[in-house]
Structure formats: C-alpha cells, structure tokens
C-alpha cells in the first residue's frame, strides 16, 4: 500500500506546537485518580437513542451480521458479510453496533455500507489498559430499499487500525441488525431499546421512504467505498443512471476530515506558514465547504459540522463522553429534484464531489434516495432555473513573525428550480440555499496562544409548488455550527514535553420547519459542549492532565421537548440529568 508511509508520518512526526490543536493519545493509568480494573462504557449523551414503533415487541428478525477484531487492518479492504432478508413483516430496522478495545490506540475512522451505500460513519474512542466499550444504535429504516432486497445484502465495515509495540489497542466489533414490526401488541417491551422520543414526523407531501437508493460511492472498494479527496482540485466523480420514472431525488452525503484538515477550522493561511518558514502542512486557512456537481453543473454545497474525534484537542475531554457526532457523524441532505430535468433521459450522468480549500484528506461518499412513480414508467421534468454564482470570499491576514490575526468570510447563495410531471401531478421544486461563514483566529505569544472563533450558518428553503405557483409544501432548514477554541502552550523546562491549556465550546444547532396544508411542524436540536482543562504532552502522548466537560442537549418536536445536562471530570460522570420538559430548570 503506497499510502502507509503517509499515515506513519502523520502518527509519528514530531509535534510542533505551532500546528496545534492536534491529535493525541491517552496514557490513562497515569492520569486517572482511581485505577479501575473493569472496562468503562463511553457514550454520546445526545438523544434520541432509537425509536421503536408503538407496540413493538420482540424483533421480527435479529441478524448477527458480523463479529470482527480490527488489529493490523490498515490497507486492507473492508470486512464483509451477508445480511439475509427479514422474511417476516417489519417496519423499523435498528443497527446495533458494539465495540470494545483495551490498551493504547489512536482514534480511528470507520464506516458501514450496505451494498456500497453508507449507513453509518463513526469514529472510535481511545482505549485504556483496563478497557473501554460503547454501543451505537441507529434507526436505519430509511435504508429499507437496501434492506428489503429479496436475496439479502452485502454489509461491509472498514476500520483501519495499526498495532505495534506502543499502539496495542485492537478494536473488537459486533454488528447486528434488528427488524421490528409495528403490528404486534406485545406488552413485553424491550426496555433497553425504548426511548422517550415520539415517532418521527410524517408530514411531507410524498411518502417518507424512498423506493430506491443508489450508492454514489467508490466502485473500487479496496480502500473503502468512500472517495478520498486530497486537495481542492481533487474532484471525484461517480457515473450513475436513474430510472426514468423518478419524481423525487435527495442526495445524502457522508463527510469526515482527517490528516492536515482534521482541525481545518484552526488552519492559518499559507502566507503565515511560508513567511515564518514553518514546516507544518496544515494550511489553506480556516474555511472548508463540500460542493456537489451534476454533469459539472454546481448542484449545492454543504457546510460540514466539525466533528472532533476522541484524540482531538484534549483527549481528556472525551472520556467517557465523546464529542458531538463522534460515534454517528452527521450526514447532510441536498434536494436535487430540480435536476431531474437533466437526469431522466436514461443515460449515464456524473455526480462530483469537491472540497473548497481542502488539504489532505477528506473521506466523502453519498446515497442517492429516489422516489419512483408507481403508475407511469416515464416522468417528464425540466430544470428551469439554475443560479449558482461563485463563492464570495474575503480574507485578511495581519501578522508579525508568529503573532497574527486572520479573518475569513465566505458566502454562497444558490437557487435552482425545476418542474416534475408525474402521476402525482406537475409540481415545481424550488431550492434556495444560503451559506454564511466567518472565522477569526488570533495567534499571540509567538504562536503559543491560539484563539479560534468560527461561525457557520446555513439556510435551505425547499418549496413545492403547483402549476398555479401555489406553495403546497415548504421545508425550511437552518443549521448553525459555532466553535470557540483556545489553546495555550507552555514548554516544560526539559523542553521535550509541554503543558497545554485547552478551552473549547462548540455547538450543533439545527432547526426544521415543514409547512404543509397550512399546518406547521417544527423540530429543533441544540447540542452544546464546553470543555476546559490542561494536559502535559510528550510527542503525541498525553502524560498528565485534568479536564471538565459539560454538555447540554435539547431537542424539541411534535412529541415534546427533551433536555439532558451531563457533566464529566477526569473520566468520571459528575451528574446526568434529563427531563421531558424544557420548562424544567435545574
Ligand atoms: C494507576 O496505575 C498506574 C500503573 O499501573 C500507576 O503508575 C499509577 O500510579 C496508578 N495511579 C493511582 C492513582 O493509583
Ligand atoms: C427468506 O426468503 C428467502 C427467499 O424466499 C429464502 O431463500 C430464505 O431461506 C428465507 N429465510 C428464512 C430465514 O426463512
Ligand atoms: C406499520 O408499518 C407499515 C409499513 O411496514 C405501514 O404501512 C403501516 O401504516 C404501519 N402501521 C402503523 C399503525 O403505524
Ligand atoms: C461480541 O460477541 C461475542 C459473542 O457473543 C462476545 O463474546 C463479545 O464479547 C462481543 N464483543 C463486543 C465488543 O461486544
Ligand atoms: C483499486 O484501488 C487500489 C488502491 O486503492 C489499487 O491498488 C487497485 O489497483 C485498484 N483496482 C482497480 C481494479 O482499479
Ligand atoms: C491534488 O491531489 C491529486 C490526487 O492526489 C494530485 O494528483 C494532484 O497533483 C494534487 N494537486 C495539487 C495542486 O496538489
Ligand atoms: C525564512 O527563511 C528565509 C530564507 O532562508 C530567511 O531569509 C528568513 O529570514 C526566514 N524567516 C524567518 C521568520 O525565520
Ligand atoms: C480558498 O477558496 C477561495 C474561493 O474559491 C479562493 O478565493 C482562495 O484563494 C482559496 N484559498 C486557498 C488557500 O486555497
Ligand atoms: C508576540 O506577542 C507577544 C505577546 O503576546 C510579545 O511578547 C512578543 O514580543 C510578540 N512578538 C513579536 C515578534 O512581535
Ligand atoms: C408543468 O408545469 C410547468 C409550470 O409550472 C409548465 O411550464 C410545464 O409545461 C408543465 N409540464 C407539463 C408536462 O405539463
Ligand atoms: C523531563 O523529562 C523527563 C523524562 O522525559 C521526565 O521524567 C521529567 O519529569 C521531565 N521534567 C519536567 C520538569 O517536566
Ligand atoms: C441534577 O439534578 C439534581 C437533582 O435531581 C440536582 O441536585 C443537581 O444540581 C442537578 N445538576 C445540574 C448540573 O443541573
């Protein structure tokens, strides 16, 4: 594998405090105040866990799909297993993943695909000698077209890991998929799977579940089904053909950033790196935007939520609470229905992915969710409006040697519109997307004090109109992903180790509004984590430190409001309060 040296270099290159924040590895026994001998459970406190259909009893089918230990899996293709179909009736499918590890190890990226379509992007916790374990449960009902294949499906799991004298943690993984039916009325509810959450909203003009899901992923899966994007000119394309009776198309994109772009929001501009003769390759400034093209036409962009992996910034923050999204990275949705006008000709078309200002590397792939006309086998469509002006970008860098102030701003506004005439009627889908990004980075103390402020806002408005231009349905989506980070580095006297103070606040805020038949349905999530602490570091190893993490999760929808507040200090949970009423104040 020609890419092995790159990763080794990444793992073992001497740390330059100038390129912090960085990824680190915990040496827990030295740090914990209580030396526990039993494995500790790690988790993402965000609700909801999983939703079972009302009255669900025992699963109709439970398939133990695969059990595998990922040791020296670097450079190996994904591990695959056959998932048989569930022949009994079912309405909800739940993915159930359990991972355990002990020893020392970096966080690793992993993904699960069904017939090449991604259903989970996840990253691992860093183990301790006494062991860690965690479970991920995800409702994968929306992938029903893949799961209902009469002969079953191929499930693939990729987790690249390296084992040597110092990196001893093997990741042991068990994957099961459970299928539940909604028409049994069994009183024996499996309480461990129940959550406080209500059933999902079903208010859209069209049915929720797609009829077909096409993987927009790498055909050569020897390095995973994802595409690896190395720089901003490194675009990746997938050729696909869609059925000519498609009346709706939503692209779901999976994204993670690694290597020099793992902490892209803190990267300084290249001029600072060059003028100071720094050796770091973490440059290109602090803005990234994933963009999608269809037949080389700009189709939309995605503002990525910066997921922090468990070795990132200060690994002591992420024990036993992991960073927002670390176990289930968010996927992003783009309504490409207006483009059906160019896609319905039964011919191959090309979907492309790129990352503005990228450095190495990004892992990206997507699923194309398609809704098919049950009556007609030929749907007519036309793209009538396509407005995608180039990104408005501003950058300002002022610095004197290693001290500096860097400002960035970026804005996009996209408007596409197209009609689709199916047996449901002739509807026009109008998609408007506005993105506004701001970043401010301060370097003081000759670069040893860094302050990063990021504010990203995205607004997407999808309107479905009839022939008379009457809006039948409006879906408004708003996302805000603010991040604030301070790192302050002090070299220790003997100069091979240093002490770093870290302070972090980040938030995942999303709001959905659906207006159909003059009825408004809204849902929102506000998930915030604050961490502060210090650590003593040698190379990439954390030798000592203290950390506090606080998280507040609030989600609101038709089923009510749920609130959870949780705090951890030095690897122990201090409090964990949750309630079903947001009026409740602790
Ligand atoms: C925990 O164990 C490690 C090694 O086994 C030891 O170095 C450390 O002092 C112990 N810590 C405490 C608080 O007992
Ligand atoms: C499910 O149905 C398929 C196709 O009819 C059949 O081959 C398979 O044996 C069935 N599986 C079970 C567990 O009954
Ligand atoms: C149960 O699930 C089926 C789909 O499998 C759906 O058609 C039906 O409406 C559901 N019933 C209830 C009561 O939710
Ligand atoms: C996986 O399943 C096997 C067999 O049930 C069990 O022994 C093992 O502990 C499980 N591992 C994890 C990580 O859950
Ligand atoms: C697939 O990609 C790997 C490298 O990731 C390469 O070695 C191999 O030749 C490729 N196979 C094909 C069929 O292109
Ligand atoms: C971008 O990455 C691709 C793929 O690794 C490489 O072929 C190309 O030379 C790179 N371009 C630049 C400008 O570095
Ligand atoms: C960077 O290197 C150049 C050429 O070696 C030298 O002239 C310059 O002074 C150096 N800059 C700094 C900030 O060290
Ligand atoms: C980042 O992207 C913007 C917009 O395309 C471009 O103007 C700018 O030069 C890029 N900066 C770098 C460092 O690639
Ligand atoms: C950088 O800023 C620090 C204070 O934060 C100051 O002591 C130092 O002299 C500054 N360095 C330069 C080159 O201006
Ligand atoms: C569908 O409606 C649009 C206007 O909303 C119209 O321009 C188009 O001709 C209609 N298509 C068909 C096939 O009727
Ligand atoms: C200096 O390094 C040695 C070994 O790396 C370590 O034992 C010692 O505690 C360090 N001293 C300070 C002041 O950090
Ligand atoms: C959690 O709830 C308990 C009482 O149930 C209360 O004493 C405590 O202060 C709460 N903690 C926080 C951080 O809200």
Beta strands, count:
31
Instruction: Characterize the quaternary organization of these chains.
Output: single chain
Round the mean pLDDT to the nearest integer and report it: 89
Summing up helix and strand content along with how strands pair, one would put the structural category as mainly beta
Whole-number count of domains: 1
Just give the CATH class. Mainly Beta
Write up this protein.
The chain is mainly β. The protein has one domain (6-40, 198-579): Sandwich (Jelly Rolls). 5% of the residues lie in helices and 51% in strands. It is built from five helices and 31 strands. It has helices spanning 4-12, 28-31, 144-147, 270-275, 340-343, and strands spanning 25-26, 40-41, 61-70, 79-83, 92-101, 109-114, 117-123, 132-139, 153-159, 171-180, 212-216, 227-229, 236-240, 246-257, 289-294, 297-302, 331-335, 349-356, 362-372, 380-387, 392-400, 403-422, 425-444, 449-465, 471-480, 483-491, 497-516, 519-538, 541-557, 560-569, 572-579. The strands form five sheets. Strands 1, 20, 21, 22, 23, 24, 25, 26, 27, 28, 29, 30 and 31 form a 13-stranded mixed β-sheet that branches. Strand 15 (289-294) and strand 16 (297-302) form a beta hairpin. The radius of gyration is 24 Å and the shape is globular. The termini are far apart. The structure holds 2-acetamido-2-deoxy-beta-D-glucopyranose (12 copies). One 2-acetamido-2-deoxy-beta-D-glucopyranose binds next to loops. The site of one 2-acetamido-2-deoxy-beta-D-glucopyranose (NAG) has 8 residues, from loops.
